[in-house]
């Protein structure tokens, strides 16, 4: 096994995942959908119909999301780690990888991230950035009492709702990726932080540090035997 994801990356991933789930749940509460669809009639769930409670839950998760997103952007900019940003030709390369997975044929070698992971990252990051910007505008009006124009109010609300649809589609696509068996080998990266050395060599041949660590791990294992 070799290291793929640092503890810091894993904490950021799961903090963002948890806060996004909390924001989706509390955001839908403000629409307000839970009273209408009777979720609040179930015992112990009456609070879901209380606008003030879901609003405060929304704000609490928004602060967590903002902190994790700011940390993520600062850390990777300072360390100059940009492996996950999309590159030219990623769209075509993604189709080649997916087509190879479907036909169970050999894939073209990938770097640390598969081309479709880089595109997924950009899509999810765009949706979250849209939600943060429009959320801050809505919050400035509510909490700070800013006087914003009617059109800014209208568009921030529409784009906030569009952001929610995009992030839901992004999460569905992200989880659907694990329907493909080869991708499941990456699941351990987000839990233990490690992946199999042979898997890194086979699939991520262009990931220099990963391949180097994998070869070293294989030599060490042979010596032990
Ligand atoms: C709100 C929920 C979530 C968000 C916003 C999110 C976001 C992301 C993003 C942007 C990436 C990098 C791009 C990619 O690999 O596609 C990623 C990677 C990953 N995520 Fe998630 N994720 C969420 C939930 C989950 C869940 C529930 C799981 C596990 C079942 C999961 C497992 C993984 C794994 C295994 C990777 C790949 C790590 C690697 O390549 O080393 N994610 N996630
Ligand atoms: C995954 C992220 C998020 C999702 C899915 C989401 C979803 C929603 C939804 C569905 C609503 C109700 C629609 C409406 O009242 O117009 C809402 C309202 C709101 N959201 Fe978000 N949101 C997210 C992130 C944020 C963030 C990061 C902030 C703040 C920085 C924020 C601030 C607000 C505010 C202030 C309201 C309006 C409350 C009101 O006046 O009724 N949201 N959100």
Describe this structure in words.
- With 225 residues, the chain is mostly helical.
- It has nine helices and two strands, in the order E-H-H-H-H-H-H-H-E-H-H.
- Strands 1-2 form a two-stranded antiparallel sheet.
- Helix 1 packs antiparallel against helix 3 and helix 8 runs antiparallel to helix 9.
- The longest helix is centred in the first third of the chain and has 28 residues.
- The radius of gyration is 21 Å and the shape is elongated.
- 18% of the residues are buried.
- Bound molecules: protoporphyrin IX containing FE (HEM) (2 copies).
- One protoporphyrin IX containing FE binds next to helix 1, helix 3, helix 5 and helix 6.
Mean pLDDT comes to 95
N→C terminal distance: 16 Å
| Oligomeric composition of the shown chains | single chain
- Please state how the strands of the largest beta sheet are arranged side by side: 1-2
The outline comes out as elongated
CA-atom Rg in angstroms: 21 Å
How much helix is in the residues? 55-70%
Largest sheet: 2 strands, antiparallel
Topology, number of strands: 2
Sequence of secondary-structure elements? EHHHHHHHEHH
What structural class do helix, strand and pairing data support?
mainly alpha
Q: In terms of per-residue confidence, which ranges show pLDDT below 50 for 5 or more consecutive residues?
A: none
Ligands:
protoporphyrin IX containing FE
Strand coverage percent: under 5%
- The number of helices is 9
